[in-house]
């Protein structure tokens, strides 16, 4: 059995974006919600402003934080757009973005520790088995 790399086992989820005022598609691997340190867990990414009447907005990045539960359902969406015309982020926006990313990094660290623990347990089991 070969899995197709783009479409295999991917689960499609949609969410409503309050800045673009439209729904976006997201594709997750079926095991995406496994081994998280807490639920719902957050997933942070950037996407471009869509559907804006203002052509200036087209290149703007929207920082999106999605909260996903153990069943891979989207429980919440938070979006942040830098309203400033310049490329320099406003102080408040920077603070919000740093806060979101810091939370995301801390979650990743927790998940990393869980995985290391599982890996060590497996290694121990493997050693026990091979010593028999
Ligand atoms: Zn959007």
Would you give an account of this structure?
By secondary structure, this protein is α+β, with helices and mostly antiparallel strands. It has one domain (10-130). The chain has one helix and five strands, in the order βββββα. It has a three-stranded antiparallel sheet, with helices on one face. A hairpin with a 4-residue loop joins β1 (10-17) and β2 (22-29). The mean pLDDT is 85. The protein binds zinc ion.
Structural category: alpha+beta
What is the number of helical segments per DSSP (H or I, 4+ residues)?
Answer: 1
- Strand-and-helix sequence, N→C? EEEEEH
The stretches of 5 or more residues where confidence is low (pLDDT under 50) are none
The best one-word shape is elongated
Number of strands: 5
Compute the CA-based radius of gyration: 19 Å
- Summed over residues and divided by their number, the pLDDT gives a mean of 85
| Sheet with most strands | 3 strands, antiparallel
> Percent of residues in beta strands?
25-35%
Oligomer: single chain
**Total of domains:** 1
Hetero groups bound?
zinc ion
Strand order of the largest sheet: 3-4-5
- End-to-end separation in angstroms reads 34 Å
Helix percentage? 25-40%
Compose a concise summary of this entry.
By secondary structure, the chain is of the alpha+beta class.
Fill in the keyword field for this structure.
1 helix, alpha+beta, binds zinc ion, 132 residues, single chain, three-stranded antiparallel beta sheet, 30% helix, two-stranded antiparallel sheet
Topology summary:
Layout (H helix, E strand, L loop, with lengths): L9 E8 L4 E8 L11 E8 L12 E8 L5 E8 L9 H40 L2
The structure holds zinc ion (ZN).
């Amino acid at each position: 059995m070969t899995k197709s790399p783009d479409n295999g086992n991917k689960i499609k989820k949609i969410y409503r974006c309050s800045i673009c005022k439209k729904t976006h598609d997201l594709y997750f691997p079926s095991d995406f919600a496994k081994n998280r340190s807490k639920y719902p867990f957050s997933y942070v990414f950037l996407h471009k402003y869509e559907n804006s009447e203002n052509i200036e907005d087209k290149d703007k990045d929207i920082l999106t934080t999605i909260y996903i539960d153990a069943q891979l359902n989207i429980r919440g969406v938070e979006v942040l757009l830098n309203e400033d015309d310049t490329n320099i982020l406003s102080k408040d926006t920077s603070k919000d973005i740093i806060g979101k990313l810091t939370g995301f990094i801390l979650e990743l660290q927790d998940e990393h520790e869980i995985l290391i623990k599982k890996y060590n347990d497996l290694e121990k089991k493997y050693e026990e088995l091979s010593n028999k």
